[in-house]
Records
---
Amino acid sequence: MPELGRLASQVPLHFPAKRTARRGVPAIRKARAQLSFARRAFLVSLIGICTAISVSFLAINLANRTEIKAGIPAIGICTVLLAIGISSLASRAVSHPLKQLIARLEQSEASGKLPPDFPEDSPTREINQLAASLKRAAMAVVQSNDRLDRACIEFVETMAQALDASDPYTAGHSNRVRDYATAIATAMQLPPEEIEVIRVGAQLHDIGKIGIPDAVLQKPGYLTPEEYELVKLHPQIGKRILERVAQFDKYLPIVELHHEDQDGGGYPYGLKGHEVPLAVRIVHVADVFDAITTDRAYRSAMSARRAHEILELCSGTQFDPEVVRVFSGILAERSIIETSDVERLATVLRA
């Protein structure tokens, strides 16, 4: 007996504090709440077997009583119904979370996107593991798509810069229009995602000039009516180039409509007022301002003050009055009306 007492005193009566601290109460509760498929199936089967055995013993005991022998068929029917009910509950416990995941995948298929928001709150461990794997896969797809979108945009931006560089009179034009348009959009407090569309769209707005002969674009003098009609095709050529890639859909209005005027006198469709998206109206002002303040083959550059006067004069006919007002405020606030250095002007606006 003394030996038994000494051995008992050496047996630990509590779990080590280190393990309890490491796992924590929430982790223990979560582990208890998330049963595996095997454990859930075992528990359901155990309950079904115990119920069947209990009902069978009850039926045997009742069968020995002659006064209730007539009720034995009803007891058998109740037993069958009970077994069906338990089976239904068991199948629902397994199938319901799977149906939720399948429904989420079907929504993704319909929308064409796979957002990484699969729920991991199922009481079944394997379902949560499956949801976590789908979430990781969706995040990888999103990151890959982002990289692909960025690569496509950078490629076309490089094409636009190469187009600018091919003509000494338009070198840097797309970059300056981008900076002017971004400054206007920021001053108008547009949402960041809209500002980004304007920034990229402005960079790409003249991409359609790739399809116009250099002899026309670089002609040292005024264009003939036929040549001018040819140049007027560049917005639609740009749209046809970019519309082949789905990632460029949000930039197409800027590329196609940046020569539409406020009063409907522009091209290619003669749209007027708010028929032209705000992003396009912003880029239109930025594009014309840079064209006026840079040398062209058929004329010399005008000063920023003169360009500002032309914008004010044509406000309401060629340009959106609100966009002109905001741009005028930017020029006045930063005291750059008098500058004749368009590169410095674009740099100041970009700052």
Note: The longest helix spans residues 125-165.
---
Amino acid sequence: MLRRAQRFGKVRRGRAERTLTRMTHAAPTAAPRESGDGHSTCIFCRIASGAVAASIVFEDELTMAFLDLRQFHPGHVLVIPRRHVSDIRSVDEDTAAAVMRIVVRIARAVDHAFPSDGLSVWHSAGEGANQEVPHLHVHVHPRHVGDDVLAVYPAPPDHPPRETLDDWAERLRNAL
């Protein structure tokens, strides 16, 4: 039964059903392989290792892109580094560049496959930004005018005076 399901691209697991677009990953019943960084409990590490099924759009040595299980609009894709990195604050520049190269390719593919009024591309870093999975991931999400996905500000933001902005810019330059 499992082989038949794999052959047709679907694997049932409890209530969830995930469609595999590539059949190169381990069957979901296989024991999870620990990623090289010891993150066998991280769901994205488990997807990257093939221990958990996902609808994979793209993968290479450094990155992977797959459909988010939650599809507010069809075509919502997540792009991750294969190696466990908690968020953008701890990623090395080579991995970050690899992820962003794939984000660009995925954004173009989403735009082509799921025509929309625009795209949102985002990464939430840490608890204060409501990061739900502590593994760096970038969302590529098709958008439609008036959908109210990701309303950025709960109230109109302040517009600090230029002197304040210049001070903040200097603080950031010094942090680089």
Note: Helices lie at 2-7, 43-49, 93-113, 162-175.
